Amino acid sequence: MSDLIRLSAAELGAKLASGEVSSVEATRAHLDRIAAVDGAVHAFLHVNEAALDAASDIDRRRAAGEELGPLAGVPIAIKDVLVTTGMPSTSGSRILEGWIPPYDATPVRKVREAGMVPLGKTNMDEFAMGSSTEHSAYGPTHNPWDLDRIPGGSGGGSAAAVAAFEAPIALGSDTGGSIRQPAHVTGTVGVKPTYGGVSRYGSIALASSLDQVGPVSRTVLDSALLHDVIAGHDPLDSTSISDPWPSMAEAVRRADVSGLRIGVVKELDTDGFQAGVRSRFHEALELLERNGAEIVEVSTPNFEYAVAAYYLIMPAEASSNLAKFDSVRFGLRVTPEGGGTVEQVMAATREAGFGPEVKRRVILGTYALSAGYYDAYYGSAQKVRTLVQRDFDAAFANVDVLATPTAPTTAFRLGEKLDDPLAMYLNDVATIPANLAGVPGISLPAGLAPEDGLPVGIQFLAPAREDARLYNVGGALEALLVDRWGGPLLNQAPDLSTHELKATEEGVV
Amino acid sequence: MSEISAEQVAHLANLARIALTDEEIQHLTTELGQIMQAVEKVSEVATPDVPPTSHPIPLRNVMRDDVVGDTVLTTEQALAGAPEHDDTRFVVSAILGEEQ
């Protein structure tokens, strides 16, 4: 394996800046890695043919003495939920197969302007609906720690790409945990910023009041550097926050938990979580405590209702957002035998173009919004949203950040929960409250569960606009843990080279 | 409240413009009943005194002058991904059926 692909984005950026490595070399090393292992991992839906051209352009600009940012020339993988010029954007759905958008999503524009090199588009559950990537229309992604297991979802492709060293860093999106839960099961880092912190312009919407784009990486500093690139006000997103943001990278570099008050959410520290998930969680807290943090128990009684509220609000918003897939302006068109009216064409197209989970949620959302049920379902869910926010407000009156395990279990086997939607939905029990309240969250590796040797994540949550606190506590904990492990957790991941020839055939686009 | 019939699912599918098969309708009828039973839990705490929240971060509506912006697509760009067009417009099949 080339040493270049083992570098963090920050390390690679420094070598690029010093001229020790060119962006063409770095990009080629990652493209070679993708060619070698992605048949088995299937993190990518599309590999960018223009990557080397973009890399050589950056090399030229650097040679000409242009002032470039810390991530210039660093390759990046992009979740297929973000629209991109020059690359198909499907959001994991058959209904958008082959669609090449006429504009870039704002976070994509920003990473291109920072000189980063898009490697391609990563796999995801269709329209980000899922926790395993098994709902992708193009076949699942496989977890690099164990190819028979799920990489999390919906952003399993981005998480698996960085865990398998196919990309140093990636973009994700998080509606109920789609950045943080994949980070948990793949031993990587993922951050959901404050709602409105990163523009949603060009992010194919699942649930507009919950969606947030964020970084996916192997180190906390890398997520911070990417966060600094993509954050900021965007007039093209009416929910974009106009306040300026402090440097997240600076928060990592100055990480110090002495005097930090960390609240442990009692309701998310129960027997409902796998033993190894809980033991690694508590070890991480003890480590923080020994280094000056104060650990306090907090109660958030309404979190119990968060999953139920989420599975009303999200499908309701999704059923409305997905109405745009009408076979008129983009994507698939299926005409019924013998022709039909525009409505019949629309219905035939959506029947053929949407997978089972999308149909399930669109019908569920249509039901929750229908006359006579609106107050009982959608209206009640919005009230729970208020209660969850109040729980956060009360907790943050006493502590600086909250801590929970990121998800109840380590990576389960592909297929294990596919036929049980309710069991699948419970994967998000610890991540959903942050989306309902708009607050930021991070998941970073806490170790391996002793019972199965699979990665476990720890989640921290901060008040809205206080994303820098996550990078402070995350950066400090990561340094302590890497010191204890004698290197990054991913050093313990199996070598994928033995799988290189075992290319899976399904679904590679 | 969570009793959902196959007729209701068929009606919802029609509203959502998805031509579900009979088999899909049967399957979804069972699943929706189970899911609604689970999510009905929200009514336990959603009492009249709790105000609803539609948006996580308090925001004011954003307005701008009603003039052509600088990020508009050209006609060619707008039509580029369409299943059918005549170079100036999207083309769709008949809006009304024969009986209408």
From TrEMBL, chain A:
> Catalytic positions?
K79 (charge relay system), S154 (charge relay system), S178 (acyl-ester intermediate)
Q: Which reaction does it catalyse?
A: L-glutamyl-tRNA(Gln) + L-glutamine + ATP + H2O = L-glutaminyl-tRNA(Gln) + L-glutamate + ADP + phosphate + H(+)
- Is Lyase found in the keyword set? no
- State the Gene Ontology BP annotations: translation
Q: Does the UniProt entry include the keyword Lipid metabolism?
A: no
Q: Which UniProt keywords apply?
A: ATP-binding, Ligase, Nucleotide-binding, Protein biosynthesis, Transferase
GO CC, sorted alphabetically, is: glutamyl-tRNA(Gln) amidotransferase complex
> Where does this protein have coiled-coil stretches?
none
Quaternary context: Heterotrimer of A, B and C subunits.
Entry function: Allows the formation of correctly charged Gln-tRNA(Gln) through the transamidation of misacylated Glu-tRNA(Gln) in organisms which lack glutaminyl-tRNA synthetase. The reaction takes place in the presence of glutamine and ATP through an activated gamma-phospho-Glu-tRNA(Gln).
**Similarity-based family:** Belongs to the amidase family. GatA subfamily.
Q: What is this protein called?
A: Glutamyl-tRNA(Gln) amidotransferase subunit A
What is the protein's species of origin?
Agromyces tardus
Automatic annotation (TrEMBL), chain B:
- The source's domain of life comes to Bacteria
Cite the Pfam families for this sequence. Answer: GatC
Biological process terms from the Gene Ontology for this record are: glutaminyl-tRNAGln biosynthesis via transamidation; regulation of translational fidelity; translation
EC assignment: the record states 6.3.5.-
Q: InterPro entries this protein is in?
A: Asp/Glu-ADT_sf_sub_c (IPR036113), GatC (IPR003837)
Q: Does the keyword Mitochondrion apply?
A: no
User: RNA-binding as a keyword?
Assistant: no
Q: Which reaction does it catalyse?
A: L-glutamyl-tRNA(Gln) + L-glutamine + ATP + H2O = L-glutaminyl-tRNA(Gln) + L-glutamate + ADP + phosphate + H(+); L-aspartyl-tRNA(Asn) + L-glutamine + ATP + H2O = L-asparaginyl-tRNA(Asn) + L-glutamate + ADP + phosphate + 2 H(+)
Entry keywords, A to Z: ATP-binding, Ligase, Nucleotide-binding, Protein biosynthesis, Transferase
- Which Gene3D superfamilies does this entry report, sorted A to Z? Glu-tRNAGln amidotransferase C subunit, N-terminal domain
> What GO annotations for molecular function exist for this entry?
asparaginyl-tRNA synthase (glutamine-hydrolyzing) activity; ATP binding; glutaminyl-tRNA synthase (glutamine-hydrolyzing) activity; transferase activity
Q: How does it assemble?
A: Heterotrimer of A, B and C subunits.
Please give the function described in this protein's UniProt entry: Allows the formation of correctly charged Asn-tRNA(Asn) or Gln-tRNA(Gln) through the transamidation of misacylated Asp-tRNA(Asn) or Glu-tRNA(Gln) in organisms which lack either or both of asparaginyl-tRNA or glutaminyl-tRNA synthetases. The reaction takes place in the presence of glutamine and ATP through an activated phospho-Asp-tRNA(Asn) or phospho-Glu-tRNA(Gln).
Regarding protein family, the annotation reads:
Belongs to the GatC family.
- This chain belongs to the protein called Aspartyl/glutamyl-tRNA(Asn/Gln) amidotransferase subunit C
Which organism does this record belong to?
Answer: Agromyces tardus
User: Which lineage is the organism of this entry classified under, starting from the top rank?
Assistant: Bacteria, Bacillati, Actinomycetota, Actinomycetes, Micrococcales
